[in-house]
Amino acid sequence: MRLDKFLKVSRIIKRRTVAKEIADQGRISINDKIAKSSTDVSVGDQIVIKFGNKTTTLKVTMLKDTTKKDEAYDLYEILNEEYKEDYRF
């Protein structure tokens, strides 16, 4: 499954176009390699996503083409979330 579609189906990122933009900016890596939106995602892959001041590391546990909102959280497991504090005034 494509990275952008996985992020949308799992509801990590709400829209596929936004997932594509973030991936194409080099802010997502799969198994320590920078990923594009078309990169294939497999079960067991470790994905690191850099959102503004937050970095989320997750592991893909299941792949489905469509999910209901309640089932979306079964597709991944969050391994780590780090927040950078911004001290600019």
Automatic annotation (TrEMBL):
Q: Which is an annotated GO molecular function term of this record?
A: tRNA binding
Q: Which residues form the RNA-binding S4 domain?
A: 1-61
Q: Which GO terms describe its biological process?
A: rescue of stalled ribosome
Q: Which Pfam families does this UniProt record tie to the protein?
A: S4
Instruction: Provide this UniProt record's keywords sorted from A to Z.
Output: Protein biosynthesis, RNA-binding, rRNA-binding, tRNA-binding
Keyword hit for Nucleotidyltransferase = no
**CDD domains given in the database record:** S4 (cd00165)
Keyword rRNA-binding found: yes
The subunit field of the Swiss-Prot or TrEMBL record says: Associates with stalled 50S ribosomal subunits. Binds to RqcH, 23S rRNA and the P-site tRNA. Does not require RqcH for association with 50S subunits.
Q: What does this protein do?
A: Key component of the ribosome quality control system (RQC), a ribosome-associated complex that mediates the extraction of incompletely synthesized nascent chains from stalled ribosomes and their subsequent degradation. RqcH recruits Ala-charged tRNA, and with RqcP directs the elongation of stalled nascent chains on 50S ribosomal subunits, leading to non-templated C-terminal alanine extensions (Ala tail). The Ala tail promotes nascent chain degradation. RqcP is associated with the translocation-like movement of the peptidyl-tRNA from the A-site into the P-site.
Annotated family: Belongs to the RqcP family.
The molecule here is called RQC P-site tRNA stabilizing factor
- List the source organism: Ligilactobacillus ubinensis
Species lineage: Bacteria, Bacillati, Bacillota, Bacilli, Lactobacillales
**Gene encoding the protein:** rqcP
